[in-house]
UniProtKB/TrEMBL annotation:
Residues annotated as domain Peptidase M16 C-terminal: 189-366
Listed InterPro entries: Metalloenz_LuxS/M16, Pept_M16_N, Peptidase_M16, Peptidase_M16_C
Protein name as catalogued: Predicted Zn-dependent peptidase
Signal sequence annotation: 1-22
Family matches, as PANTHER family: NARDILYSIN, NON-CATALYTIC MEMBER OF PEPTIDASE SUBFAMILY M16B-RELATED
Domain Peptidase M16 N-terminal, residue spans: 36-177
Pfam families xref list: Peptidase_M16, Peptidase_M16_C
Length: 438
């Protein structure tokens, strides 16, 4: 969302080595239900303060989609004690940076300040939670901002890919709707509806506050209590999303994009949510298929046979269902069907025999590197702690998640490929140039 000047970038990674280290943290709850996680690292004079709310694109009335993403913007408008537009001036004026982002499952705000500005950071986030100004001026302003963001996305080549995935892979679960929402829904929304949405989802008992970096633990606990204790808890959010029926035969679909000249193909599968063990295995499978130029699909289809300009297998992480998709842009006269045949040949091979020991060891090395890199800065650590608590239910995954990957065997990779990646379990989407008459 908002782009800060990352003047502290060099300091953020100070103190972290290229080998994985145990991340120490402490947790506690305020009486209002706000969960707090503290991570102390005094090797650099910086601190990351972040709040993750358990609300995303999937939440809310399906005739009012996009509210969570809208609030990502709206809650920078100001508060009873922060003037309109001042939020984004205060942070850089005090040597800080900030950003926010929204997924289908959560909304995340964070600031990075020199550590002597911790109290300022806590005040800013408490103001967002306690005293936001949600008025018609702010709604109208941010409506135009969101519309411009939507135009930029839809105006870029292949910018509608993710929307095509969601709308074709899901029929009843709210993942079917784009995270950014439909503009007509935002246009039709009333101020009362925006206020009701805030009251329902942005309470302290539906959030986690993470403070990581150069802090004094005892002093930080007192500051947290001082700034957040007066926030009133909200009723518990109850979710009961409809379940998708399994895909039992190939579904063929088309999507159109006026900004492309070369078509693409997506072979996409609905798979278990990111907290499941099978999701971890599918992470490894996606890397095996296209993680780097020596991966089996990239090497074969792009490098050797030159049938595709681009190819990528991705296991898109979501809480309720992941999206496993293989995306390819053909080269020259290669047809989309030919690309699919080449992809299927490698999947069938993986289902029928164990991957090579050498490839397996390379996967383990890749995931060890990813694990280390994710925890190589206080910003990365803070987001991992928040995600693991709020969405995965286990904060200590920050230390033990790598052991899950290490425990996955070649036999398990084969079994999971058989379980989820068959032709009759997928949606094949032809992503085509839009013609004038369409």
């Amino acid at each position: 969302m908002k782009k800060g000047l990352f003047t502290l970038a060099l300091l953020l990674s100070v103190g972290y080595m290229s080998t994985a280290q145990q991340v120490e943290f402490e947790e506690f709850d305020l009486d209002n239900g706000l969960h707090v996680i503290l991570h102390q690292d005094n090797t650099a004079p910086v601190v990351s303060t972040s709040v993750m709310y358990n609300v995303g694109g999937k939440d809310g009335d399906r005739e009012r989609t996009g509210f969570a993403h809208f609030f990502e913007h709206l809650l920078f408008e100001g508060s009873e004690n922060i003037g309109r537009g001042e939020f984004m001036k205060i942070i850089p004026a005090n040597g800080g940076t900030f950003n926010a982002n929204t997924s289908q499952d959560r909304t995340y705000y964070f600031e990075v300040f020199p550590s002597n500005k911790l109290e300022l950071a806590l005040w800013l986030e408490s103001e967002r939670m306690l005293h936001p100004v949600i008025d018609q001026v702010g709604v109208d302003t941010q409506n135009e901002v969101v519309k411009e963001e939507k135009r930029q996305r839809s105006g870029s080549p292949y910018g509608g890919l993710f929307e095509a995935l969601g709308s074709n892979l899901f029929k009843v679960h709210p993942y079917k709707d784009p995270n950014i929402g439909y503009m007509e829904h935002l246009d039709a929304a009333t101020l009362e509806e925006f206020n009701a949405y805030f009251d329902k989802y942005y309470g302290p008992n539906n959030a986690v506050l993470v403070i990581a970096g150069d802090i004094d633990m005892a002093k930080t606990k007192k500051l947290v209590a001082a700034y957040f204790s007066e926030v009133k808890p909200r009723p518990e959010v109850v979710r009961n999303f409809p379940k998708e029926e399994p895909i039992t035969e190939t579904i063929k679909a088309q999507a159109f994009d006026e900004n492309i000249q070369i078509p693409a193909i997506l072979a996409t599968y609905r798979t278990p949510g990111f907290a499941s063990r099978d999701a971890y295995v599918l992470d490894m499978i996606s890397s095996y298929l296209s993680g780097g130029k020596s991966s089996v699909l990239y090497k074969k289809i792009v490098d050797e046979q030159k049938q595709a300009l681009q190819l990528q297998a991705v296991n898109i992480p979501q809480m309720d269902y992941n999206i496993f998709t293989i995306f390819a842009i053909p080269s020259g006269e290669t047809s989309l069907d030919t690309i699919l045949e080449e992809i299927d040949e490698e999947i069938v091979k993986m289902q029928g025999e164990l991957i090579a020991e050498r490839d397996y060891q390379k996967l383990i090395n890749q995931f060890e590197n990813q694990f280390v890199n994710a925890n190589a800065s206080i910003v990365g650590i803070a987001e991992s702690l928040a995600t693991n608590y709020l969405l995965k239910g286990d904060v200590n995954l920050i230390n033990k998640e790598i052991e899950i990957y290490r425990s996955i065997t070649r036999e398990e990779i084969q079994a999971v490929a058989k379980k989820y990646l068959s032709k009759n379990q997928r949606v094949e989407i032809e992503y085509l140039p839009k013609k004038d008459d369409q």
